[in-house]
Amino acid sequence: MPGTLYLVATPIGNLEDITLRAIRVLREVAVVAAEDTRHTGKLLAHLGIHTPTTSFYEQNELERIPRLVSRLASGESVALVSDAGTPGISDPGYRLVRAAVEAGITVQAVPGASAVLTALVASGLPTHAFAFLGFPPPRAQARERWLAALATRQETVVFFEAPHRVRETLEAAARILGDRPAMVGRELTKLHEELIRGRLTEIVGQLTETRGEFTIVLAPADKAEEAMPLPDSPALYREFCELTENEGLGRREAISRLAERYGVPSRQVYSAVERGREGPAS
To answer: For the domain that residue 71 is a member of, what is the CATH number?
Structure first.
């Protein structure tokens, strides 16, 4: 009889957030597949668990998946864990789950800590609908296009950001999306946890510490903002010039930014900008 693949959530900072079920499963499985065996080894030692571990991370997952599925098929149970939180969220995991499902192996999630939900429910922003978007692109222009795509989304958005880019990303968000409400969570559940709430520009002003792990929660687009009409051609051309001359965007990037801002096709923006460039007909 095949074993079971358990997706075990582990603490995101506070070790007291491990569940009783997670402890039992980690003790009973044949092996723990871990993103970082050294990191997970410390958690297991803290819990007095001596289950063997094997590494499972992005660079070796394609090699490890057949081995783990074979062990599962032979009757062994496997626990998959990440460095922190729920495995499969912004880290390796879903390909192993898919392979196990295709092989007819039982997959069970063992719920627990999640930085996404921890930040969302503490933010004070709407929780009835939300989207988690992982990490923004690291390069500035790609990140700005990524942010522009959020302009009219009607759900709360949650994403992670690296400490050395968090200030730049928040400043870009304020510029591209407007000064909307948000929350930044740093070092969630840890001793030096920090939750900064307010409008984006206010948060940037309060952000004094850029070390640690950051989770950002953005309010949905305002209804009035979503319905913003396309300006006349001269006004749109002035906005185009602002983007290309003052913000350093290329022509194509500026057209795309304006199309995202007003919710219209790029070709419509291009035509309007060209009319604005030519000026009023004589």
So the answer is: 3.40.1010.10
Look-up of token digits 């997959």: 107
User: Do 247 and 258 sit in the same domain of this protein?
Assistant: yes
**Cα–Cα distance, 38 to 44 (Å, whole number):** 10
Do 109 and 9 lie in one domain? The reply is yes
Do 108 and 165 belong to one domain? no
Per-residue pLDDT of 149-192, as tens digits, reads: 898 888 999 999 999 999 999 999 999 998 999 999 999 999 99
- Characterize 4-35 residue by residue with b for buried, 16 or more Cβ atoms within 10 angstroms of its Cβ, and e for exposed: bbbbbbbbbbeeebbbeebbebbeebebbbbb
Both tokens of residue 45? 């030692």
Which domain range does residue 166 map to?
A: 116-222
Which residues are paired to 131 by β-bridges? Answer: 157
**Residue 222 predicted with pLDDT over 50:** yes
Sheet holding 78-81, edge to edge: 53-55, 31-34, 78-81, 4-8, 106-110
pTM: 0.77
Query: Helices 140-148 and 251-262, interaxial angle, to 10°?
Result: 20
